[in-house]
Amino acid sequence: MYLKSFTFNDFSENTYILYDDSNECIIIDPGCNNKAEQTEIINFISEYNLKPKKLINTHCHIDHILGNNFIAQQYHLELSAHKKETAVLNVGVQTALMYHIPYDPSPQIKQYLDEGDHIAFGNSTLEVLFTPGHSPASISLLCRDSNILIAGDVLFQGSIGRTDLPGGNFETLTRVIRSKFFTLPDDIIVYPGHGSPTTIGIEKKTNPFF
User: Fold this and answer.
1) For residues 169 and 134, what is the distance between their CA atoms, to the nearest angstrom?
2) How far is CA 81 from the centre of its chain?
3) Rounded mean pLDDT of 167-187?
4) What's the CA angle centered on 17, arms 122 and 81, to 5 degrees?
5) For the chain, give me the number of helices (H) and strands (E)?
6) pLDDT by residue (tens digit) across 91-101?
7) Which residue blocks in the chain are alpha helix, DSSP H?
8) Which domain holds residue 33?
9) What is the pLDDT of residue 80?
10) 137 CB contacts (<8 Å, ≥6 apart)?
11) What pTM, to 2 d.p., does this model score?
């Protein structure tokens, strides 16, 4: 499996495309919300002759959903996320107005994902982990064969997701990281929703929250 990351919008959000030798791909947390960012994604998909198969949100905070409608329309995809992120998704318009950022409202979640589900595309499979705490029902996506963990805003290099937004809970988040992330092999690479990649091993040893 291959991974391409983009950093989009005023929140410096990480958007990910995962793909393999079949040329099928999935698009995770598209934060593109202007023409230049949209073009960047289109050009990459076109250059590598990729075939988008799924649109997934790890969670539905505004910075992770700004490009949902564009990607859904461009590639005729339905949105996949956890069912309990619906309430977060539905305040997107108000949140965008509060931050004075352009937002083409996201389509609704059509395919629900939860703990233990498997997402198949091409020759690859991702395992869904239920990882709330930063948001009510965040999910993370794990590929054990490729040592890849798409963590959303759960765990960062040297930090964790904020828990002061509606539905956030510090105790839940730290418990999830200990039980779902820190039980994984140390060489798993963590790709967060913001900032640089890290590894499970590094965060177990050096993250100040633990």
Assistant:
1) 7
2) 10
3) 98
4) 85
5) 7, 14
6) 999 999 999 99
7) 35-47, 62-65, 68-75, 86-90, 92-99, 170-176, 200-206
8) 2-206
9) 98
10) 59, 82, 83, 84, 85, 130, 167
11) 0.97
83 vs 93: CA distance, rounded Å: 19
Q: Which residue has the tokens 């698009």?
A: 27
Total domains in the chain come to 1
Distance between alpha carbon 140 and the CA centroid of its chain, in Å? 7
> Rounded CA gap, 84 and 115, in Å?
13
Alpha carbon of residue 77 to chain centroid: 16
Cα gap 48→110, rounded to integer Å: 28
For 11-44, how does the pLDDT look when each residue is reduced to its tens digit (9 = 90+)?
999 999 999 999 999 999 999 999 999 999 999 9
How deeply is 48 buried, as exposed, middle or buried, from its count of CB atoms within 10 A (0-12, 13-18, 19+)? middle
The token duo for 49 is 């002759």
Angstrom distances, CA of residue 74 to CA of 34, 47, 77: 14, 16, 8
Q: CATH no. for residue 12?
A: 3.60.15.10
The angle at the Cα of 110, spanning 105 to 115, to the nearest 5 degrees, equals 115
Express as a percent the part of the chain with pLDDT over 70: 100
* Burial status of residue 145 (CB atoms within 10 A of its CB: 0-12, 13-18, 19 or more): exposed
